[in-house]
């Protein structure tokens, strides 16, 4: 009998580790690449990722490794769980090894200057690879703790979707498929910005009405933006849209929410990010999103408000006042009325 081919996970953070463990639980051999040899050694010897996923037992099927060439040479299915700021840098030097691979991005960010989503970078770096994404309401710690969870794998490549479904589906994890890679991935990137705002609102002790208003108007704003870019608004009604928005805007486990909470407590952005010590993609996304929304002339008052607080010296009180006193609008204004 031939030995089963391992699956690669690139990234030694909380999400890479949670996905690696999930794959191992389903009987897959996993080669998890990370850049930090000390972290790899800790996983190898202590069977724990003490910095990013403390308290979670890492299964024997997960083999940590710092040799990216060796990991890629061994695996066809590759989950890319790197921060958006690192993905291109890590993969460009090994581009020659990526042809024919199934590359699945789990990264919820947007590249600063190009405004590219991560799967678009993968396509650029590896034009002969098969590309997909996974996204959804997927807090890493909850996945690792076996909270019942669902995600979406999105790709035009139906065979890739079913490979990912069978690799990840399990007792506590369900994987839905979608052909709308762009919409699914965009939802995951945009919601991080609103989670920062939700964290701020929580720190200010705002009530349930306020939280609900925020989440619903965030959905309107992100869908309006997505429609302008040609995305299918219906995708935003699914797990990777409203599903992820709800979890990230409601949970103190979300790192973006935590940054917002710290800002609401009066910390500077720099201190809030330093206190977190992990990736909060929304901090970079807000910068590019504000510029892009202006270029495309999409009305995004929450994005503009957060940007004004973080980078234009406006106070929270001034922004809240401006948002509440803005001109009256209609409610559901973001779904095109033709074609229904
Ligand atoms: N943690 C979560 O609950 C979820 C995270 N994601 C996404 O997964 C992506 C990765 O996030 P996490 O694993 O949560 O981050 P994390 O903050 O837990 O860990 C980041 C990891 O990336 C590594 N890293 C940073 N710069 C690097 C570089 N230049 N080269 C190689 N490795 C580098 C760090 O050493 C660390 O291992 C993010 O885009 C995030 O939005 C998606 C779903 C859930
Ligand atoms: O994307 C996530 C949950 O779906 C994780 O959110 P944070 O990156 O804010 O922790």
Automatic annotation (TrEMBL):
Return the EC number.
1.1.1.94
- Indicate whether Zinc appears among the record's keywords: no
Start and end residues of each Glycerol-3-phosphate dehydrogenase NAD-dependent N-terminal domain: 7-160
Q: Which reaction does it catalyse?
A: sn-glycerol 3-phosphate + NAD(+) = dihydroxyacetone phosphate + NADH + H(+); sn-glycerol 3-phosphate + NADP(+) = dihydroxyacetone phosphate + NADPH + H(+)
Q: What InterPro entries does its record include?
A: 6-PGluconate_DH-like_C_sf, 6PGD_dom2, G3P_DH_NAD-dep, G3P_DH_NAD-dep_C, G3P_DH_NAD-dep_N, NAD(P)-bd_dom_sf
Which of UniProt's keywords are assigned here? Cytoplasm, Lipid biosynthesis, Lipid metabolism, NAD, NADP, Nucleotide-binding, Oxidoreductase, Phospholipid biosynthesis, Phospholipid metabolism
Glycerol-3-phosphate dehydrogenase NAD-dependent C-terminal domain residues are: 180-320
Tell me its family. Answer: Belongs to the NAD-dependent glycerol-3-phosphate dehydrogenase family.
The name this protein carries in UniProt is Glycerol-3-phosphate dehydrogenase [NAD(P)+]
Which lineage? Bacteria, Pseudomonadati, Pseudomonadota, Gammaproteobacteria, Pseudomonadales
Gene name of this polypeptide:
gpsA
